[in-house]
Write a structure and sequence with these properties.
The chain contains eleven helices and 15 strands. The chain has about 375 residues and is an alpha/beta fold. Strands 10-11-7-12-6-13-14-15 form an eight-stranded mixed sheet, sandwiched between helices. A three-stranded mixed sheet has the order 3-4-5, covered by helices on one side. It binds adenosine-5'-diphosphate.
Length: about 375
């Protein structure tokens, strides 16, 4: 009978190879340094890289047998080898807004096409559908969400949560709202430049108590800028919705916007296009449609960019008036309200479809070992 000491155990374990590598489990660093020997009882741990290593059980058995043979049989090892797995590194995706399921950017190439109108109506409809919704008005050049929600005079208060002082979003129509407009005069907003604006926006995201949300909507500034890049690179954005009018100049800018989002630097999926101001129907001639900004532009761009057209919104006086009055029209029992609610249903379906597709892609990648 050999006397037992750790070196002997190590020599025994050097006989155990990890299948397919040609290396033994000692040189692979799989044997925990802490080998305990109490009389004839030996115990230690094997360290695996992955929690579901396919050879875990068979290697434990092989290690037991190797030790029994090497030490001459009289040894208490069965059941004494435990397994550990290396700490899995945290996924690279940021942990910001970890309780938020979907972060959706709403963007446009040009200003004035109705991006904030769409954001406001989408937010209140999603909230009415029972989702938990946050809306960040990041439109540094014309923050209009406070007016559209009738909360221009609101000022968010700070609350100590744990160790941190966090801003409490203003709640209206079931939506948690923060706007850059709460903190700057509309006249001053234009002079804000890149880094300053990005930092202010980051604070509205990181230093606010958004809590658990199903949808966090970001009403982005129009165009493509550093602010867009910073925001989409800081946050794990689920997708972007592009708002455009059917007018050629708006479509050209929308195309630029889409190309930025799907480009190498940003890589955010485009969930779809919304064509606003698609036509005008006068109240007294409800059958008539006047295509003031051109016809079918949204559909053409959607086909060209291979993205769905999520909806068309006509020019309707009540959309403008209700925006000014601080009550988004989607809350009204009108034809326009119903059309906007339909658009929100399309939107939810598109987000769910994207999430399912990306889950399926991830599963395939895992299977391929990517
Ligand atoms: P953006 O956010 O793209 O700058 P807004 O949503 O602020 O655009 O819209 C600009 C103006 O046009 C607002 O006064 C808004 O009420 C009005 N508006 C937007 N969409 C419509 C529409 N479909 N019908 C009538 N007025 C609209």
């Amino acid at each position: 009978m050999n006397s037992l000491y750790p070196k002997l155990i190590i020599e025994a374990l050097e006989k155990v190879r990890y299948p397919g590598t040609g290396k033994n489990i000692v040189e692979m660093g799989m044997v925990d340094d802490n080998i305990r020997i109490e009389g004839r009882r030996v115990s230690f741990s094997l360290i695996f890289n992955r929690p579901r290593d396919p050879f875990m059980k068979s290697l434990v058995k092989s290690a037991e047998s190797a030790i029994l043979i090497y030490a001459g049989g009289d040894i208490d090892i069965k059941g004494n080898i435990s397994v550990k797995t290396k700490e899995q590194p945290k996924p690279a995706a940021n942990n910001l807004l970890s309780e938020v399921k979907n972060i959706i950017a709403i963007a446009s190439g040009k200003g004035g096409v109705g991006k904030s109108t769409v954001s406001a109506n989408l937010a209140v409809t999603l909230a009415a559908m029972g989702y938990r919704v946050g809306l960040l008005d990041a439109d540094i050049f014309g923050p209009s969400i406070p007016k559209m929600f009738g909360i221009e005079d609101a000022r968010p208060v700070m609350k100590k949560i744990g160790e941190r002082d966090l801003m409490l979003p203003i709640e209206k129509y079931g939506v948690k709202v923060l706007s850059i407009g709460f903190f700057v005069n509309p006249e001053d907003a234009l002079v804000w430049r890149g880094a300053m604006a990005s930092n202010a926006l980051k604070q509205l995201i990181t230093d606010a108590d958004w809590g658990a949300l199903d949808y966090f909507l970001l009403d982005l500034p129009p165009g493509t800028s550093d602010i867009h890049l910073t925001l989409v690179q800081t946050l794990a954005v689920t997708g972007v919705v592009i708002v455009t009018t059917p007018q050629d100049v708006a479509l050209a800018d929308a195309r630029k916007g889409i190309n930025m989002f799907i480009g190498e630097k940003v890589r955010v999926p485009v969930l779809g296009l919304i064509e606003n101001m698609a036509w005008f129907t006068p109240a007294e001639l409800p059958e008539n449609r006047y295509y003031i900004f051109g016809r079918g532009g949204g559909q053409r761009l959607a086909e060209e960019m291979k993205t769905p057209l999520l909806g068309q919104i006509p020019i309707v006086q009540s959309i403008c008036e209700s925006g000014d009055a601080g009550v988004p029209v989607a809350l009204s029992e009108t034809f326009t309200g119903e059309a906007l609610r339909q658009l929100s249903v399309q939107f939810v379906e598109q987000v769910q479809f994207r999430n399912e597709t990306s889950e399926a892609t991830k599963r395939v990648e895992v299977r391929k070992g990517m």
